[in-house]
Amino acid sequence: MKSILLSLIAITIFSVAFAQHPFIRIYNSEGQKFVKGRLQMTSDSGLVILKKGKESEEIKYNFIHKIRMRRSAGMTALIVGGIPAVWGMSLIKRDQNWDGLVGILLIMEGMVVGPAAGGIKAILNPKPLMILGDQQKWMQAKMKLDQKLSK
User: Using CA of residue 122, residue 126, residue 35, residue 151, what is the dihedral sign?
Assistant: First the structure.
C-alpha cells in the first residue's frame, strides 16, 4: 500500500511539473514526424521546441504540416492497463497473505480498464492542428498553443 501511495504522489508531481510545457509532435507534408519535444514558445513565424538533452529548436510555420499534442489511444491503453498489471504481478511475486489475490484483481483490472481507457481516448482525442504551411492556419493554431502554454 505504501509503494502504491508513493507512486501516485510521484506521478502527480511529474504531471504538474510538465503541465506548463505540453509535449507535441510536428509532422511534415509527407506525414513524417520530424520533430518532437516540449513546446517552449510560439511566435508569428513559428515555434520553439525543447528536445531531449535540453536542446532548443525553432521551427518555421511554413515547414509544419500538422501538430499533434496528445498521445495515441493505444499508448493510453497500454499505460492505464499496464500500471495495475505490473503492480499486480509484483504483489503475486511477494505472495504474502492477501497479496496474491489483490495481485490477480489488479491484473484483471488492467485488462479491463486499459482497453476501455484507450477506447475513450480514441473518441475524445482532439484532432491534430493542421497548418499546411499556411500563415492564417498557423495564426489560429498559435492561439490554441498559447492557451495550452498559459494553463
Answer: negative
Give domain 1-70+140-151's CATH architecture: Roll (2.30)
List average pLDDT for each run of 10 residues in the chain, which is 151 residues long: 57 50 86 88 91 84 89 74 81 69 81 82 79 92 86 71
Per-domain residue ranges for the chain?
A: 1-70+140-151, 71-125
* 47, containing H or E segment: strand 46-51
pTM (2 d.p.): 0.59
At 17, which helix (H) or strand (E)? helix 2-17
Task: State CA 20 to chain mean position distance.
Answer: 13
d(CA 61, CA 42): 10
